[in-house]
């Protein structure tokens, strides 16, 4: 299977104070060059993609500052 074009749109849901992301929906449109069904490819990608799995499992976030005093963790 060869992919002709792929379009991915991500919609996030925000709620709370402070405002937090409470959900995300990824919409995928994938056209193959030979016209075959791309469902299996999208399903495999959804199970193995680094970004999706990282968001699902949560990741630590580090914020660093830079300036005349150098970078230091916040």
Automatic annotation (TrEMBL):
This is Uncharacterized protein. SUPFAM superfamilies: OsmC-like. The lineage of its organism: Bacteria, Pseudomonadati, Pseudomonadota, Alphaproteobacteria, Hyphomicrobiales. It comes from Aureimonas glaciei. It comes from the Bacteria. InterPro entries: OsmC/Ohrsf.
